[in-house]
């Protein structure tokens, strides 16, 4: 949609859907790289890939969110006026909390949680929160694609249904289908 409108015609806004989509795509690969890891070595390498990809996703999603805020400022438009914007703000804050807790549970041997053993106990919460956050982000994207004036103005219902409905469900089927519920035992 951005490319067919013309990237240069959209000003700061062009970066928002572009970076957010790329960020989510990288985040999904970062999750999949841990689903599942076969050997202790592949687990170790998977964890390194997970961190690098999540840092890349965090950078992309930060650029995507800040360019949207800048876009609103340059047009003197009010902030957080739609469900998409509210869901997006929660997504972005959640992403930082998720990333900070994830990093704190691995970096410096989990000293932030009182050592490696205690830090690893956080992982099941990190897993469940990560999957829940992905669901929330998919809902955020759905709201933008189905209900924003911009999306409705530049594309029809079939294209939006495929891009912001079917494709998001397929991403969820792909990711949640490979989830190992046994790793999240709470009892
Ligand atoms: C990938 C597809 C996306 C599209 C097409 C899209 C599109 C839009 C549009 C058209 C707006 C302005 C209208 C409105 O406020 O509803 C907007 C605002 C916003 N979006 Fe998105 N968005 C996408 C993804 C995301 C994601 C994944 C996040 C969060 C991580 C996000 C966060 C926000 C926020 C916080 C605002 C409001 C900014 C403000 O009010 O200053 N968006 N988006």
From TrEMBL:
InterPro entries hit by this protein: CYB561D1/2, Cyt_b561/ferric_Rdtase_TM
Cofactor(s) this protein cannot do without: heme b
UniProt cross-references to PROSITE patterns, sorted A to Z: CYTOCHROME_B561
Chief localization: membrane
Keyword Ion transport: no
Recorded GO MF terms: metal ion binding; transmembrane monodehydroascorbate reductase activity
UniProt key word Cytoplasm: no
Pfam entry (one): Cytochrom_B561
Record's bilayer topology term: Multi-pass membrane protein
Any one GO CC term of the record: membrane
CDD domains: Cyt_b561_CYB561D2_like
Domain of life of the organism encoding this protein: Eukaryota
Residue ranges occupied by any Cytochrome b561 domain in the UniProt entry: 1-182
TM helices/strands, residue ranges: 12-34, 55-73, 85-108, 128-145, 157-177
Record's keyword terms, sorted: Electron transport, Heme, Iron, Membrane, Metal-binding, Transmembrane, Transmembrane helix, Transport
Localization, UniProt: Membrane
PANTHER family given in the database record: CYTOCHROME B561 DOMAIN-CONTAINING PROTEIN, OS05G0565100 PROTEIN
Protein known as: Cytochrome b561 domain-containing protein
């Amino acid at each position: 949609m951005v490319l067919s409108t013309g990237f240069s015609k959209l000003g700061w806004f062009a970066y928002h859907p572009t970076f957010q989509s790329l960020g989510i795509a990288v985040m999904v690969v970062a999750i999949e790289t841990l689903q599942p890891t076969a050997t202790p070595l592949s687990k170790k390498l998977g964890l390194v890939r997970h961190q690098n990809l999540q840092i890349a996703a965090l950078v992309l999603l930060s650029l995507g969110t800040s360019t949207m805020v800048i876009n609103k400022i340059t047009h003197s438009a009010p902030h957080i006026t739609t469900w998409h914007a509210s869901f997006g703000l929660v997504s972005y804050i959640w992403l930082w909390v998720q990333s900070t807790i994830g990093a704190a549970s691995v970096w410096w041997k989990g000293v932030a949680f009182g050592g490696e053993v205690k830090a690893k106990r956080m992982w099941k919460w990190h897993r469940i929160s990560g999957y829940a956050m992905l669901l929330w982000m998919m809902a955020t994207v759905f709201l933008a694609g189905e209900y924003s004036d911009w999306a409705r103005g530049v594309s029809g219902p079939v294209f939006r249904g495929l891009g912001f409905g079917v494709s998001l469900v397929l991403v969820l089927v792909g990711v949640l289908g490979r989830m190992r519920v046994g790793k999240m035992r709470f009892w």
